[in-house]
Amino acid sequence: MQIYNTLTRRKEAFTPIEPGRVRMYVCGMTVYDYCHLGHARVMVAFDVITRYLRYRGFDVTYVRNVTDIDDKILRRADENGETISSLTERMIEAMHEDEARLGVLPPDSEPRATRHIGDIIAMIETLITKGYAYAADNGDVYYRVRRFEGYGKLNNRDLDEMRSGARVEVDEHKEDPLDFVLWKAAKPGEASWPSPWGEGRPGWHIECSAMSKCCLGDTFDIHGGGPDLTFPHHENEIAQSEAANGKPFVNTWMHAGAVRVNHEKMSKSLGNFFTIREVLEHHDPEVVRYLLVASHYRSAINYAPESLADARKSLERFYNSLEGLALEGQALVGSESSAGERDRQFDARFTSAMDDDFNTPEALSVLFDLARELNRAKKESPEQAPALAAELRRLGGILGLLQQDPATFLKAGASDLPLSEEEIQEKIDARAAAKKAKDFAAADAIRDELAALGVILKDSREGTTWVVEKPEG
């Protein structure tokens, strides 16, 4: 298995620290607002990675933190006139709802910053003792960036270049403008905790260093996050953790790509900022998940109406292949393949694609080949179709896809039609009667009438089924 390591800027053979076990930490959300599409990208990307590692037989411990104390949280709670705990609990519940709808499995551990204040203070004390941090006279504690020899290695940045090009706020309490805060002295009325340096709260960067150490140890296998976290957040995590623990922090760094809206950066100021729940009001969650999975996790994704339409059509191709087969008990995610040796070639190709830095676009191309083989078998060798369908569902499940009932998915959107499902069935029955009476003109007229409304009929040996396909325009 090869994984691209942001630290070394190349693909590397993945060898976990402990044979058969993977420890992974991913930076989670700062819970002051609803999760947006960028969060969805990170959620789904590392959900797929976790699912696949488990499919490959690894015992995965997946930790994704929650930042529940932060400047943005303080401001939003004040604006709303609610307590910090009320705001964060509400947003965490909403986050769990969003990820569940997208088919994202919960992490094994979800530490919150406010529940690890003791661990955070202990790490800051260690950094002060070792000379990597200092308490200023205003109650803040800062990290000495120049004291850490390897600072900048994740982003391949030189300290002097950072200093000359930095937009650093003037702070007379810092020894060096590049130093960053580990502990913030509390302002009057702010949420705070007692510490050796007075009442205050942790800086953002130290939270993840303390929580990852608590949950996974001094050194672990994979650290992930969004594309905007490599600097300064992850760079600062490395400096803090390696200075405090005296050991390498992380073996493999992974970062998901950005989400763009109509090829522009997603931004509230541009009016193209979408929360997950806003998107799911208008689109099937699996369609949104497919869009996120269809691009390689390191690539940028373009979110646009035509992108979602293409994702829907792709899923319809899969579900059309599965339709009409007895699929009960075939959601065999992670189980052994029941297909014959010829069909296990699909499993081998799928695994080869995913072993290459989780190449989901190539893995999906294997599933399309499998769907074509299933369609052929349904016509020419019906006895082979159930095993192929089971294989398609099983491999799709590793990506978190193709686990719905095909008819249910294909009929999605029926509530927007001018006819009820009962009325559609009545017309299908009338068409069948017309065909039996050899009145083919009437039968064709019924088919055309339904097609004009977006109801597409599909005839098979088992009878006539229908799907919703809105006409163009």
Characterization of the model:
With 473 residues, this protein is an alpha/beta fold. The protein contains 16 helices and 15 strands. The strands form five sheets. Strands 4-3-9-10 form a four-stranded parallel sheet, with helices on both faces. Strand 5 and strand 6 form a beta hairpin. The radius of gyration is 27 Å and the shape is elongated.
Topology:
Layout: E1 2-5, E2 10-13, E3 21-26, H1 37-55, E4 59-64, H2 71-80, H3 84-101, H4 117-129, E5 133-135, E6 141-143, H5 159-165, E7 180-185, E8 200-202, H6 204-216, E9 220-225, H7 230-245, E10 250-255, E11 259-261, E12 264-265, H8 276-280, H9 285-294, E13 301-303, H10 305-322, H11 341-355, H12 360-380, H13 385-398, H14 406-410, H15 421-436, H16 440-452, E14 455-460, E15 463-468
Parallel strand pairs: 3-4, 3-9, 9-10, 11-13
Antiparallel strand pairs: 1-2, 5-6, 6-7, 7-8, 11-12, 14-15
Biggest sheet: strand arrangement: 4-3-9-10
Please estimate the helix content.
40-55%
Mean pLDDT: 91
Q: Tally of extended strands? A: 15
Instruction: Please count the helical segments.
Output: 16
Main β sheet profile:
4 strands, parallel
* Tertiary shape: elongated
As a percent range, the share of strand residues is 5-15%
Distance between the termini: 45 Å
Low-confidence regions: 331-335
Which structural class do you get from the secondary structure elements?
alpha/beta
Q: Work out the radius of gyration.
A: 27 Å
